User: What shape does this take?
Amino acid sequence: MKFAPEYVTYVLNENFEDAKELFLSPLMAIHHAHLVMLAEQGIVSREDAHRIREALDSISLDEVQEARYDGSYEDLFFYIERLVIARCGEDVAGRLHTARSRNDIDMTMYRMRQREFVLGLLSATFALRRSLVDVIDRNRETVLAVHTHTQRAQPTTVAHYLLAVVEQLERDATRLKGAYDRTNRNPLGACAITGTGFPIDRQLTSDLLGFCGPTGNTYGSIATVDYLLESVTASSVLLVGLGRFLQDLLLWGTAEFNYVSFGDGYVQCSSIMPQKRNPVAIEHARAIGSKALGQAQAIVTAVHNTPFGDIVDTEDDLQPLVFAMFRDATRAVKLVAAAMTTAAFDAKRLEARAADGWTTLTELADTLVRDHGLPFRTAHAISSRLMHERERDPGVPLSHTLARVSADLTGVPLAYDEAAIAQILSARHFIEIRRTLGGPAPEETARAARQSRAALESDEAWWNGATTGLADAERNLAARSAAL
Assistant: This one.
């Protein structure tokens, strides 16, 4: 078949180059695994299997990578097939394609690559979690005024804030692990879309290729993309959460806030303003993450409203976008993980500003409830009036103002001296008294940090098991193939 030059230029050449970069290694592994299975099942004779295996082993992957598309074959699959035929003859080489199709080969390649992408992104989140927990351990006592609705709200600690980020990353890990489990299923054997009449062993090829097991319905094995969309959307959730954290870091790094700074290796000076210390690593991470999020949305859009079947939209032209999305998502996470190892928070500045703007006024209301049994709404009203009266006439002692406004609202003046009120309204007291589960008290954040380290160790053990399983399968496949 002679292809139109435009089709060669705009489609086949591009796809050939992408396939060489992304799928040559998985394709060769599939060839070997399928061949072992055919021989084990007696579908192909041992003699023919041996000749095919020798032909496969004789192919130089480096030479394949250097090959340029010339239009005489459709894609990488047919290019490799032509090399096998040249080495062992068409009659023998043609037996390798028994009981399979490019459809199930493609879907198997995609899943093999995607599981690597998911594991790579997951590993990057581990590095970020580790660096954040290290910062948490150094900043359990570092007071920080946090915002709600972009307005200063209440004091907490840097540790408490970062633990919220870590917990989000822990949930991201749960989502990515689930996506990996559903990705790591083997479509090989589904053939074009309805399976085969040959007595194939789909569990054997699954084991040889490191899959958890075969997919089920053969139609769905070819038609579905939900495994891909799950991984992509799990990555999207991660990227959105990361971006919100980066937005805070960039705000806190401004001269107006000056809460946090990063090591010299992660900042740049201006070409014209020598005083500048720009946190460009964090800016780049935000931009790269946004780029990855856009790519993720493009993936979903590309497969939206396509037929539920074998369709080009989910194949050659989509897969480079999947690769780019995971690559950029992983880059962004790794960059933040590295930069956070150098993050330094200005504890004195943070604490000095933590109680500005009456951020601790909730604790005064809480104290009035605890000490006097007032309804919270009444205590809230007293505290609010106290604030307004103080701002109107700052020269009057707070103890006098509190007694007067409480008498106005309840009929009973509430007596606290100035030292007691100062203690109640101090940022550190506000934090230390909040010892409930998930709260900012240092002993509670210490407990939560220990729990997060344990969760990290558990997730890393899962990851090590998954990667070891893939490596073991690869060695087993090599040995089983060599024995043919």
Observations:
- The mean pLDDT is 95.
- The beta strands are 143-148, 151-157, 185-186, 213-214, 260-261, 344-345.
- DSSP finds 19 helices and six strands in the chain.
